Amino acid sequence: MSSGDNIAKRNLIAAIADEDSITGLLLAGIGQVSNEKGKEKNFMTYVPGKTTEEDIEEAFETFTSKRNDIAILLINQHIADLIRYKVDTFTNAFPAILEIPSKEHPYDPEKDSVLKKIRKLFGE
């Protein structure tokens, strides 16, 4: 299989986010539910007090390493902070990881792993 074939299969957006963000993303149409083992759904809802750091890590690993149909992973920045070492050390081109704000937690560009990598490339 050529790398072009692999890229062509990446046609989904996945999300790890709080309830409000997931609701909005699902209403926008990103939700995918399947009976295929390992690809049951392309989103994980973070619930404070119920969702563990291990749950977040498992979803991150699934969306970034175990699935070949995810092109973009959206993650609330405050959730990415809980697994920052995983987010910052992820170097593959796909899926692209984009940190997004939530209603309760504003976006902080100083924490964003993509912006850190860009600054490093430009020697800042």
From TrEMBL:
It is a peripheral membrane protein. One of its GO terms (molecular function) is proton-transporting ATPase activity, rotational mechanism. Gene3D superfamilies: ATPase, V1 complex, subunit F. It is found in: Vacuole membrane. The keyword Cell membrane does not apply. It comes from the Eukaryota. SUPFAM superfamilies: AtpF-like. Keywords: Hydrogen ion transport, Ion transport, Membrane, Transport, Vacuole. The keyword Electron transport does not apply. InterPro entries: ATPase_V1-cplx_f_g_su, ATPase_V1-cplx_fsu_euk, ATPase_V1_fsu_sf. Its main location: membrane. It holds the Pfam family ATP-synt_F. GO terms for cellular component: fungal-type vacuole membrane; proton-transporting V-type ATPase, V1 domain. Subunit of the V1 complex of vacuolar(H+)-ATPase (V-ATPase), a multisubunit enzyme composed of a peripheral complex (V1) that hydrolyzes ATP and a membrane integral complex (V0) that translocates protons. V-ATPase is responsible for acidifying and maintaining the pH of intracellular compartments. NCBIfam families: V_ATP_synt_F (TIGR01101). Belongs to the V-ATPase F subunit family. V-ATPase is a heteromultimeric enzyme made up of two complexes: the ATP-hydrolytic V1 complex and the proton translocation V0 complex. This is V-type proton ATPase subunit F. The gene is Piso0_004651.
